[in-house]
């Protein structure tokens, strides 16, 4: 083998070995690199695992923090929402049905229809610990919320693992008992309208609940429901039927939707024009400002009815836009309504599928309907309350603020509020030159007396006693005006009242006395007006600012009693009334006549001149004839309301007023006491005339004025109290003149004895014990005690019984015919003179004394038990009666008195207990009724 070949082999071999070495090195390097890479990889894997664990722990911690924050926040928010809802829907507006009862609220509330299903609410701690967490298993779903407790599907995904059962399937999601319940509320009254859509049955439940809550949160009668239910003919509101009896629920027929919508639009227009009158933007605002709600809420429930006509749609849209401000609200089902301000849409659905528009997407679980028994019982209760009438308004509402009393001047008239009108504004009533006088009518029990009290209270609080004086007379049995005078329990009186007459039903004379008194006052004012050359009170007061010219208001309740007779009392009363009514208007004398009886008003109707002056007419519910023939406003008046009409009852002048309760003693006395404490010190109590009270001689001012031995004039004999404004005593003067004897006639022993006692005591009071001689003769054992009592009261008097009267008469007859002058008067008081013993001789002696005695200061004051018996004593039928110049008749009929009533026929006299008729022919034109003084 050639060298060269060998060399070449060698070279090749060396080359190969070199290559092998290099490959070996490369391999080792590669193996090292791989090992290093593998080690790095393992480190990285370990680091990554460690980091992930750390992150998972951090994430779980954060999730727990967020969970805790979410729970607290949500609980707080739910609590706040529940609290706000409770405030927005208190009492009957939000109370669950099981404990529900009507609770009228001060203002309209939101109404609960169900509950809002809030986003997931916190669970109590133990429950939370067990809560399987979708976040904890390290899965990629990091969602921590977004599930609404009420959103089916999502909730199970959020709370439970994929395999767990949903906690509540068909009935709805889990309701966490720890979560405050947030009610779903809707606003209706004073706010807007409600449209109910969706499921029909649940919609019915919503409607029933809504209406009941609206009714239960307002004063009975303040929510009125009008139902339009053409498909079910009212069946949709059947449970509310008891309301229909009280007019709180009315139905309109299937064809009457036009009428209903027109009517509601009419209400809105009227309320805007006359109630809100530009002053308020809504009834709610008016209520907030004045605390009065003159209009009820009118809730029209429209249930279906198909396609609306153009007119109906227009009217409906008007109501939806403008009704709520006027308290006209619609609850609509089965009609499409465009969304708009104040319109709430309720989509009814069972379970949690319901929605209300104002809560957005929040699911709502609707409340069940109230049970039929709750609905019916509530409706009955409301109907009864409405039928019973509105709660009384307090008298205080008519009065000025305390401390602001007596600031008005009555120069031009007397103006006072009488209450609120149903439209809201106060009704003011004025007595002035026009209208000058008032006529009030109302059947018994309709509040006439209360009306008078309220009017008097409102006037008395505004005008001081210098500006206003009351004269009050009540012909009714009872003491309705007695409260104005001091009584045993209450010493206060109403300072304006100058005279109170109560229980005067049988004493028409007292009415006459009042009219006479007012007639005299009228004359005084007319004279003053003449003197100052003025024509009315306002001018007189301007000319004579220091004079006392209060306006006088004379109230006569049951005045028809005064006009009821056909006698001189009525004749004079009518004349006086006519004069007062005609001329009193300009002199500030105002008459207020009240009557419960249509005949009272009719008594006036025959006297058109009189009636025309009474242009202020006040009619209480069901009063007849007081307004104009064509004016039937009183027929439909609710309780405690009155029609006030200042234009003689013409229908267009009607103003309806709700009269406050003024009868309540406590409220009245607080006003009276307040005014009483302010009275001027010189103002005394009013004169109280009480027809049921027997007056006492000791209280008679005339008796108290008598002084022994002071007077040189003829002695005055008092007999009883006249029926008079000034409680005068009836008297007869025993001059030295023929006929100056007194005969008391009648069988009533007590009264006859009382009159003789008054006569004897009053005479005795004018003499010293020796200044006159008194002889008391008792011829009737029934009168013995009274005769003895009188004898005991008159020191030095003689006392004679039947056995010894002869001596007295013989002596007296001699005295009467003697020629020497009498040194002192002698008064012979004979009890039962008709029983005089001693036959003809004694009778002659008595006759002599009667005829001739008075001229010799010997006067007989005798009691005969009949007018005929007196005639016998005087000498029989044909004898003259002039020895009896004065008499007092008890139970003797007028016709029997004719002989003693010269030239005037028979006096008008209807005997009645404890009243007597007095006539003194020397001074009287007619006889006067008197009340004997009691013997105490
Ligand atoms: N506005 C009112 N608010 C509350 N209660 C009233 C009101 N008006 C009257 N009443 C009550 O009604 C009852 C009858 O009233 P009132 O005595 O005034 O009637 P009247 O018409 O004068 O009856 P009568 O003529 O029989 O006396 C009383 O108990 C009274 O308190």
UniProtKB/TrEMBL annotation:
Region (Disordered): which ranges? 122-175
The residues covered by the FtsK domain are 424-629
**Which parts of the sequence bind ATP?**
442-449
Gene3D superfamilies associated with the record: P-loop containing nucleotide triphosphate hydrolases
Q: Which UniProt keywords apply?
A: ATP-binding, Coiled coil, Nucleotide-binding
SMART domains with a match to the protein in the record: AAA (SM00382)
Pfam families hit by this protein: FtsK_SpoIIIE (PF01580)
Residue ranges of coiled coil: 20-47
Q: Does the keyword Nucleotide-binding apply?
A: yes
InterPro entries hit by this protein? AAA+_ATPase, FtsK/SpoIIIE/SftA, FtsK_dom, P-loop_NTPase
Basic and acidic residues: compositionally biased ranges: 128-144
- Does the record carry Coiled coil as a key word? yes
Q: Which domain of life is it from?
A: Bacteria
Q: Could you cite one Gene Ontology molecular function of this protein?
A: DNA binding
What is the official name of this protein in its record?
A: FtsK/SpoIIIE family protein
Give the species: Actinoplanes xinjiangensis
């Amino acid at each position: 083998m050639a060298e060269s070949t060998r060399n070449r082999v060698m070279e090749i071999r060396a080359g190969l070995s070199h290559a092998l070495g290099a490959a070996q090195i490369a391999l080792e390097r590669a193996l090292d690199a791989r090992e290093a890479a593998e080690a790095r990889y393992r480190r990285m894997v370990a680091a990554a695992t460690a980091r992930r664990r750390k992150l998972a722990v951090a994430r779980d911690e954060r999730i727990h923090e967020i969970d805790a924050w979410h729970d607290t926040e949500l609980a707080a928010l739910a609590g706040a929402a529940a609290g706000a809802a409770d405030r927005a829907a208190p009492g009957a507006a939000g109370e669950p049905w099981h404990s529900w009862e009507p609770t009228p609220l001060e203002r309209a509330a939101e109404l609960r229809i169900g509950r809002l299903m809030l986003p997931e609410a916190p669970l109590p701690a133990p429950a939370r610990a067990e809560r399987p967490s979708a976040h904890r298993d390290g899965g990629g779903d990091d969602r921590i919320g977004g599930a609404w407790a009420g959103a089916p599907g999502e909730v199970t995904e959020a709370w439970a693992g994929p395999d767990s059962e949903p906690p509540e399937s068909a009935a709805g999601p889990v309701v966490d008992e720890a979560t405050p319940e947030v009610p779903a509320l809707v606003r209706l009254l004073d706010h807007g309208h409600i449209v109910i859509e969706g499921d029909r049955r649940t919609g019915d439940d919503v409607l029933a609940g809504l209406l009941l809550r609206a009714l239960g949160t307002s004063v009975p009668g303040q929510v009125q429901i009008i139902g339009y239910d053409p498909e079910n003919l009212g069946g949709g509101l059947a449970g509310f039927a008891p309301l229909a009896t009280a007019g709180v629920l009315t139905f309109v027929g299937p064809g009457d939707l036009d009428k209903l919508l027109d009517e509601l639009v009419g209400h809105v227009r009227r309320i805007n024009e006359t109630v809100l009158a530009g002053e308020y933007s809504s009834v709610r605002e008016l209520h907030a400002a004045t605390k009065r709600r003159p209009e009820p809420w009118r809730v029209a429930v429209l249930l279906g009815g198909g396609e609306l006509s153009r007119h109906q749609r227009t009217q409906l849209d008007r109501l939806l836009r403008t009704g709520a401000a006027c308290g006209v609200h619609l609850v609509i089902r089965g009609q499409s309504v465009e969304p708009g301000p104040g319109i709430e849409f309720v989509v009814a659905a069972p379970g949690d599928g319901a929605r209300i528009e104002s809560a957005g997407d929040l699911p709502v679980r609707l409340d069940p309907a109230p049970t039929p028994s709750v609905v019916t019982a509530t409706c009955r209760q409301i109907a009864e309350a409405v039928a019973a009438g509105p709660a009384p308004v307090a008298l205080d509402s008519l009065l000025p603020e305390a401390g602001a009393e007596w600031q008005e001047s009555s120069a031009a008239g007397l103006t006072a509020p009488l209450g609120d009108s149903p439209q809201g504004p106060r009704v003011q009533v004025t007595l002035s030159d026009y209208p000058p006088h008032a006529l009030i009518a109302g059947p018994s029990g309709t509040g006439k007396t209360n009306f008078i009290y309220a009017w008097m209270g409102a006037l008395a609080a505004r005008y001081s006693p210098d500006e206003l004086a009351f004269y009050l007379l009540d012909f009714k049995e009872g003491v309705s005006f007695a409260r104005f005078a001091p009584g045993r329990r209450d010493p206060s009186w109403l300072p304006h009242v100058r005279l109170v007459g109560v229980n005067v039903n049988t004493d028409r004379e007292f009415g006459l006395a009042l009219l006479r008194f007012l007639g005299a006052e009228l004359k005084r004012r007319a004279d003053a007006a003449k003197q100052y050359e003025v024509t009315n009170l306002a001018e007189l007061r301007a000319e004579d600012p220091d004079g006392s010219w209060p306006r006088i208001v004379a109230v006569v309740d049951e005045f028809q009693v005064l006009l009821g007779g056909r006698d001189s009392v009525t004749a004079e009363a009518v004349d006086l009334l006519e004069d007062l009514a005609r001329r009193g208007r300009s002199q500030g004398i105002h008459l207020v006549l009240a009557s419960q009886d249509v005949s009272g008003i009719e008594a006036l109707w025959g006297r058109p001149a009189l009636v025309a002056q009474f242009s202020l007419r006040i009619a209480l519910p069901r009063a007849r004839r007081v307004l104009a023939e064509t004016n039937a406003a009183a027929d439909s008046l609710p309780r405690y309301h009155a029609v006030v009409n200042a234009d003689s009852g013409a229908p267009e002048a009607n103003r309806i007023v709700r009269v406050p309760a003024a009868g309540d003693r406590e409220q009245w006395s607080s006003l009276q006491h307040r005014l009483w404490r302010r009275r001027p010190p010189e103002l005394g109590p009013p004169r109280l005339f009480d027809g049921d009270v027997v007056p006492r001689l000791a209280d008679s001012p005339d008796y108290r004025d008598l002084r022994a031995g002071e007077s040189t004039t003829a002695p005055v004999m008092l007999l009883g109290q006249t029926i008079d404004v000034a409680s005068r005593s009836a008297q007869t003067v025993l001059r030295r003149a023929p006929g100056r004897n007194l005969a008391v006639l009648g069988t009533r022993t007590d009264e006859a004895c009382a009159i003789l006692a008054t006569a004897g005591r009053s005479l005795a009071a004018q003499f010293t014990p020796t200044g006159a001689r008194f002889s008391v003769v008792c011829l009737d054992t029934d009168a013995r005690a009274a005769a003895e009592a009188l004898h005991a009261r008159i020191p030095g008097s003689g006392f004679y019984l039947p056995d010894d009267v002869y001596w007295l008469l013989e002596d007296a007859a001699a005295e009467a015919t003697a020629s020497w002058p009498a040194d002192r008067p002698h008064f012979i008081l004979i009890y039962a003179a008709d029983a005089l013993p001693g036959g003809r001789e004694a009778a002659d002696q008595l006759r002599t004394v009667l005829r001739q005695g008075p001229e010799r200061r010997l006067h007989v004051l005798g009691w005969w038990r009949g007018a005929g018996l007196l005639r016998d004593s005087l000498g029989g039928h044909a004898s003259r009666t002039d020895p009896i110049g004065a008499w007092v008749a008890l139970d003797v009929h007028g016709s029997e008195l004719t002989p003693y009533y010269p030239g005037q026929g028979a006096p008008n006299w209807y005997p009645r207990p404890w009243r007597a008729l007095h006539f003194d022919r020397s001074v009287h034109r007619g006889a006067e009724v008197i009340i004997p003084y009691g013997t105490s």
